[in-house]
Write a structure and sequence with these properties.
The protein is an alpha+beta fold and 364 residues long. Helix content is 38%, strand content 25%. α4 runs parallel beside α5. The longest helix has 27 residues.
């Protein structure tokens, strides 16, 4: 890179939370056919490491889960729940306020006014509408009408990595550029019905929220610098993680093979990638690992030979917010920055493909 690129400001926004036990009770009404399946579901939800997670469907009363129950009638009433059109209508209503709040926080943190933003990158894999989030953010934030726009859609949990890589390229290519990256995901609009264990894992993990970052030129001593990015399509993994549009929401499958694939392929790839930058895995004191689930975190740590404490902030985010898909890694980096971390950091995320994405960062 010809100049230092840095994350100048960050922000995040979350809807009201639903406790994991309440979410498990809801899942049983949608998916379980008997007491044995209900018991299996309860055990699955208990093992995720998730304690609570935000949902735009949460009600305003004493029991937040009532809002989800209103949107998702029990399977006993017939059908497979809301149509994709109904879910997208709710997305178009609920996604903009979260995106706007996270963006305002990021701009304030960066001490920049909205007119100073030259480029806007929006990220989401859980909904579509047009005019979309970009138009909403231009109007709601007061961005320049001529701001350059890019949307990264349907790339899943690692999409923020792709967005930050694109933002880095823009800043490097055009001195003076300031790029606003906004990730918003409403995963709880896609709860699936029926007894399909690979889809039930998604029901147990995913949540709603938004996160934003302002990327621009920085000095070498910038608080959080972006040094490089990497990418790997894991071999023989095409069916390990999928994300498809169905008639009743977007349908995710997670294969039990995902942890094994991560264990086998992550370390050799990272060793080669880091060597290009004159570094070893043992040289990296900080790890920002996307918590696809507790087994993913464990598999990454085992593959890299790093202590479980390396994923402490990732586990904290998973416990208190759930898996926010693309927004998650920005939330983790924001929390790492708040806790005054320092040194080289590798961020890792995994998504459909099975694809792995990485960032080499430095906390000053």
């Amino acid at each position: 890179m010809n100049q230092a690129v840095a994350i100048l400001g960050m922000g995040s926004s979350f809807p009201r939370s639903v406790s994991q036990p309440r979410a498990a009770e809801l899942a049983a009404t949608l998916c379980a056919e008997d007491a044995r399946q209900t018991q299996w579901l309860t055990h699955l939800f208990d093992r995720t490491g998730v304690e609570q997670r935000g949902s735009v469907l949460a009600g305003n009363g004493g029991d937040a889960s009532e809002g989800l129950r209103d949107f998702y009638p029990p399977a006993s009433t017939g059908g497979r729940g809301p149509t994709t059109a109904q879910r997208m209508q709710r997305y178009a209503l609920k996604a903009p306020p979260l995106a706007l709040e996270a963006s305002r926080q990021a701009l304030a943190d960066a001490e920049l006014g909205a007119p100073q933003i030259t480029d806007l990158i929006t990220v989401s894999c859980t909904g579509f509408f047009a005019p979309g989030l970009d138009a909403t953010l231009i109007r709601g934030l007061g961005l320049r009408p001529a701001v350059r726009r890019l949307h990264i859609g349907f790339m899943g949990c690692h999409a923020a990595f792709n967005a930050l890589a694109a933002a880095s390229d823009l800043v490097t290519a055009r001195p003076g550029a300031h790029v606003l990256v906004v990730c918003v995901e409403l995963c709880t609009l896609h709860f699936s019905y029926g007894w399909q264990p690979q889809r039930l894992v998604a029901n147990s993990l995913f949540a709603d929220g938004a996160a934003a970052a302002v990327v621009g030129a920085g000095e070498p001593e910038s608080r959080l610098s972006i040094l490089s990015n990497g990418s790997l399509l894991l071999p023989e993994s095409q069916e390990a993680m999928t994300w498809c549009i169905g008639d009743h929401g977007f349908e995710m499958t997670l294969s039990p093979e995902v942890p094994r694939l991560i264990r086998e392929h992550t370390r050799p790839w990272l060793e080669g990638w880091l060597s290009q930058h004159g570094r070893l895995i043992d040289d990296i004191p900080l790890w920002a690992i996307h918590p696809g689930g507790p087994k993913v975190l464990w598999s990454v740590c085992q593959s890299l030979g790093v202590p479980a404490e390396a994923a402490a902030i990732s586990r904290h985010v998973l416990a208190h917010h759930g898996n926010l898909s693309s927004a998650t890694i920005l939330v983790i980096l924001e929390q790492m920055r708040r806790t005054s971390q320092s040194g080289a950091c590798v961020a890792l995320g995994f998504g459909p493909g099975l694809m792995a994405e990485s960032l080499l960062l430095h906390f000053a």
